[in-house]
């Protein structure tokens, strides 16, 4: 009999109940399922980003703290420390920018999926975009893309 929390085609996980070196045995186990067994990689990615959304807030607070520390290190005249703090600050800012770009692309893909479903329901053909056209649509830029493929919606329209 298969329980609802078990993955199909997987043996049941066995958890050691023995107390090793005074450590507690883990209570909750997230079962790993193959993507071919029902879980899509996209859903897994969404679950990951939902579970670790608090890291974005931590990254933002770290950026604010590093900016303050960088200003104080520059005022104190400690150039090597200020340089190290500045590199860490740039790294965190780049991570934040990459995350926003990823979110924009995911949102654009979801919008395109909804549009294609609506188009197919009306009897029209779906629109398939390559990566360059997706990025252009996400950024609302029409460079190097045919104008009839990418529609940029702005507040001015």
UniProtKB/TrEMBL annotation:
Name the major location. Answer: nucleus
Starting at the broadest rank, the lineage of the source organism is: Eukaryota, Metazoa, Ecdysozoa, Nematoda, Chromadorea
Q: In its UniProt record, which GO terms are filed under biological process?
A: maturation of SSU-rRNA from tricistronic rRNA transcript (SSU-rRNA, 5.8S rRNA, LSU-rRNA)
Q: Does the keyword rRNA processing apply?
A: yes
Query: Could you tell me where this protein is found in the cell?
Result: Nucleus, Nucleolus
According to the UniProt record, one GO cellular component term is: 90S preribosome
Q: How is the subunit organization of this protein annotated in UniProt?
A: Associates with 90S and pre-40S pre-ribosomal particles.
Name of this chain's protein: rRNA biogenesis protein RRP36
Keywords, ordered alphabetically: Coiled coil, Nucleus, Ribonucleoprotein, Ribosome biogenesis, rRNA processing
Region feature Disordered, mapped onto this chain: 17-41
Role noted for this protein = Component of the 90S pre-ribosome involved in the maturation of rRNAs. Required for early cleavages of the pre-RNAs in the 40S ribosomal subunit maturation pathway.
């Amino acid at each position: 009999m298969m329980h609802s929390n078990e993955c199909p085609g997987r043996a049941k996980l066995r958890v050691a109940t023995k107390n090793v070196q005074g450590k507690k045995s883990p209570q909750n186990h997230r079962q790993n399922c193959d993507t071919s067994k029902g879980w899509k990689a996209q859903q897994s990615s969404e679950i990951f980003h939902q579970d670790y959304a608090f890291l974005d807030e931590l990254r933002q607070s770290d950026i604010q703290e590093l900016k303050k520390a960088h200003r104080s290190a520059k005022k104190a005249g400690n150039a090597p420390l200020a340089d190290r703090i500045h590199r860490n600050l740039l790294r965190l800012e780049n991570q934040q920018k990459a995350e926003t770009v990823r979110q924009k692309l995911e949102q654009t893909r979801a919008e395109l999926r909804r549009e294609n479903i609506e188009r197919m329901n009306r009897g029209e053909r779906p629109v398939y975009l390559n990566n360059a056209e997706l990025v252009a649509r996400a950024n609302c830029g029409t460079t190097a893309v045919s104008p009839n493929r990418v529609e940029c919606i702005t507040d001015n329209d």
